Automatic annotation (TrEMBL):
Official protein name in the record: Peptidase M28-like protein
Species classification: Bacteria, Pseudomonadati, Bacteroidota, Sphingobacteriia, Sphingobacteriales
Signal sequence annotation: 1-20
GO terms assigned for molecular function: metalloexopeptidase activity
Record PANTHER family: METALLOPEPTIDASE M28 FAMILY MEMBER, PEPTIDASE M28 DOMAIN-CONTAINING PROTEIN
Amino acid sequence: MKSLFTAGIFSVVFLFNASAQEAGTGKADTISVSEVRSIIEVLSADSLKGRGLLNGGADIASDYIIGKFKEIGLVPGPGQTDFRQDFKLKRVTYTGYHARLDSEMVRVPNIIVASKQLSLDWNQDTPDIKVIFIGVKDDIRRKLEYVNRLKSDKLVVMDPILRPIFNRIGAGVQLEKYFIDSAYTPRDPYSTVFLLTDVYEFNEFEVKAQSKTEEIAAHNIIGVLPGKSRQDEYVIFSSHYDGLGYIPADKGDTIANGADDGGSSTTALLTLAKHFREKDENERSIMFVAFSAQKAGGVGSEYFSATIDPQKIVAAVNMDVIGKASQFGPESAYITGYKKSTLPEIIRDNAPRKFKFRPDPYREADLFRQSDNFPLAQLGIPAHTISTFQLGADPYYNGARDDIHTILAYIDNLTSIINAIAVSTHPIISGEVTPTRIDPEDI
């Protein structure tokens, strides 16, 4: 990939990094462990009810974040009179569904509907539905990958012996759907219905699913630190502040505190805002965005992306689940979509001496499309997510034990990550370098 650095700019960057390392720590000295701890303790407290969108916890977190923005001295986003960017979303919940293969009825728990459609009404005469069979002798992983890639509606019939795999698929399916458009157009137009049955041959079938909708109020939080010489050029730092809220009892605890998932990255957002305000060196404007409704399918970032002029956004650094060590160990994090723009390269090359920003090690999971950077990337903005999440290896993820106690052992590491982000993005904020744009056709 072509480097954006001229010899002169590289010298400036080198001197900047060297000055940050003179104390021998390799870290910026503005963001302290005590500051990080004080914020994440608030965001992950039981009193915030897991920052749930439906239980009022997200509103409590919002008031705290807005208070911090005011204390720091940020101003509302462009066109906003306050820090809240209000929007309405609708929650879609299936009220019931079933399938029939000839005369054989298939009902819960032997049916999974993975769909963003408001209803389904399929039969053998419905066009463009692909019927796929998965048996015990099949290469199950390859079959499921094929199902995932297929651009059509799919009816997937699975052998009853595959119940454990079927159940894992069901656990990963979002049962509730959220959208923001009054005329609903789902981002993914295709639906997949999984059936667990020993009926392998049939001439007729039907699949029916009905739903109900309810309206929910939500809001993103946007604060801006105006630039000195390039006020119309923005660098975005973002995180989602909402969480799961209440969940089924996990060892007697029903609050998913989200200390790591949302809490750690929102802590980074607030400490970075204070850091850059105190440095007072940003030539470009910096926009700090706390997204809501990420747990509802990334609706908050989707709404935000429809309100901005993408040509004014130079870069977008999203942070998501950074509270613990990555699989690469301490003093490291990974960046999704590593080769889709030069933003990851710039961050990597300007990190403090000991810190390593690495490519996303879980590329098969396509995490680039799973976080709040993606709606911005679809507009061509160099938008990537920084994370330390160990996919499939964190037993506390999305549970009641994702609380402050599981983060405290890593608080020094979390602080080092935030400081590394502050140092490595300095050349972009100062206007010295500009990352290449993302090609929307490449994602």
